């Protein structure tokens, strides 16, 4: 992969994935409210201020040392924000692994939104990276492993220091 890819608008039949910006913070607060979202990923619902600070960092598009591209999108359905997807990719490496994650607000879950958004993300990402796709998922997070399976990822049995399992595609990702 040459250079740092920038997130671009991605459209699917139902959804629009909008490159993340600080102005999304306010409307994302209610989407990320509640406790169920954090059961497997940890943390708590952010305030508008916390989210604005987080989005200011993430929307720069790269880590401070320039080694990683940070690609973030808000998922929009019929105009309303419903969740987000993100990818982290090493810059300058040939065929780097894209580490992806997905979150859909409690009110919008169970309707295939994460699967549709993540598929579109991979469709955009893979021609740019040419490498495999991976996600760290807590054992027992059945909704997330359900999404990963639909994307063609498989559990590797390898756990990170937080006890999350590495799910990955064969190389190159399909
Ligand atoms: C994981 C998450 C993004 C899934 O969002 P979603 O839009 O509801 O997912 P989808 O509707 O695309 O579901 C995909 C598959 O997951 C499975 N699934 C979804 N919800 C499930 C649940 N509560 N229990 C078990 N399996 C579930 C199903 O197999 C589903 O496939 P199906 O349509 O054939 O039934 C959402 O639950 C979420 O945001 N969870 C909290 C944050 C999180 O854990 N993120 C993942 C970090 S790795």
Automatic annotation (TrEMBL):
InterPro entries: Acyl_CoA_acyltransferase, GNAT_dom, Ribosomal_N-acetyltransferase. Residues 36-171 form the N-acetyltransferase domain. Transmembrane segments: none annotated. Pfam families: Acetyltransf_3. It comes from the Bacteria. This is GNAT family N-acetyltransferase. GO terms for molecular function: protein N-terminal-serine acetyltransferase activity; protein-N-terminal-alanine acetyltransferase activity. GO terms for cellular component: cytoplasm.
């Amino acid at each position: 992969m040459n250079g740092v890819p920038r997130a671009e608008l991605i459209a699917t039949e139902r959804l629009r994935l909008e490159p993340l910006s600080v102005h999304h913070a306010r409307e994302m607060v209610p989407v990320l409210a509640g406790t169920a979202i954090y059961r497997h990923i940890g943390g708590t619902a952010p305030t508008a201020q916390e989210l604005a600070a987080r989005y200011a960092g993430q929307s720069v598009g790269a880590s401070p040392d320039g080694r990683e591209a940070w690609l973030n999108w808000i998922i929009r359905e019929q105009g309303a924000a419903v969740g987000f997807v993100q990818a982290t990719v090493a810059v300058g490496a040939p065929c780097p692994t894209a580490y992806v994650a997905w979150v859909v607000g409690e009110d919008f879950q169970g309707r295939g939104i994460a699967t549709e958004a993540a598929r579109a993300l991979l469709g955009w990402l893979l021609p740019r990276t040419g490498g495999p796709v991976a996600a760290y998922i807590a054992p027992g997070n059945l909704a997330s492993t359900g999404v990963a399976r639909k994307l063609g990822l498989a559990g590797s049995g390898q756990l990170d220091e937080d006890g999350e399992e590495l799910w990955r595609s064969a190389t190159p990702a399909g």
